[in-house]
Amino acid sequence: MIRLENISLSYGSRTILRDVSLHLHSGELCALIGRNGAGKSTLLRALTSHQNTIINGTPQHNLSAEQLAQSIAIVTTERIRIENLLVEDLVAMGRAPYTNWVGHMQDIDREIVGKAIKAVGMANFVGRDTSSLSDGELQRVMIARAIAQQTPIILLDEPTAFLDIPTRFEVCRLLADLAHKEGKCILFSTHDVDAALPVCDSFAIIENEGLQKLPTKEATSEIERLFKR
Predict the structure, then answer these.
(1) Which residues, listed in sequence order, are joined to residue 15 by a DSSP beta bridge?
(2) Among 151, 156, 143, 216, which residue's Cα sits nearest to residue 184?
(3) pLDDT tens digits, one per residue of 132-181
């Protein structure tokens, strides 16, 4: 579905990852973990921009901007809180790769937006101003925007950050449903290992400029060692 082959990444003069590869598949939920500053966000960006990224068998640099937007949806750590921006308007931004040049929504686009909102449990919030939402509610809306984009691949940077404990588990279960029931390929960075362990198929672990991806059962001991040093 998506893979990086033998890449090295730097932040300023510091090498973060050296000669690493990562393969992700349809229907897979993978958590990307590592200590602060290990390069999780840098790796997520590379998946959308590095010349060695392969998406559905096609090198990233051979895809147009429109094709890339129809292949990968990204949920960043940015919280969009704009007064008078309604929930459905924010989710509708996910339809941008498919609407015409003036962004005119067709009936099918509105239907997709409605289904995406319902999928994240926010149907009762239609008509609400996004500036009035809690962090957890807004995070669900951002995920709905990614769902409305209808991409086979979704990348998320710290989707559970700043959420209370019950909401962290809810967001992780939602991501698992998207992967396992909708066949999405999902990679999300996180420090919230407790919420990720019950639902993830695999973990991609960054440490000492290296990257290893392990099935969840095999990753448990590595996770304990990494975070209990």
Answers:
(1) 10
(2) 151
(3) 998 888 988 999 999 999 999 999 999 988 788 888 898 899 999 999 99
CATH number, position 205: 3.40.50.300
Residue 147 tokens, joined: 């769902």
Task: Name the strand (E) or helix (H) holding 179.
Answer: helix 165-182
* pTM confidence score: 0.90
Element (H, E) at 11: strand 2-11
Q: How far apart are CA 60 and CA 68, in angstroms?
A: 8
Q: What percent of the chain has pLDDT over 90?
A: 53
Query: Residue 211 sits in which domain range?
Result: 1-71+154-159+186-229
Find, among 161, 135, 155, 124, the residue nearest to 55 by Cα: 155
Task: Report if residue 120 sits inside a domain.
Answer: no
Candidates 5, 49, 17; CA nearest to 155 is 49
The pair of structure tokens assigned to 222 is 């590595």
- Contact (CB, 8 A) for 77 and 158: yes
Vertex 103: Cα angle to 58 and 81 (nearest 5): 95
- Residues in the chain, overall count: 229
228 within some domain: yes
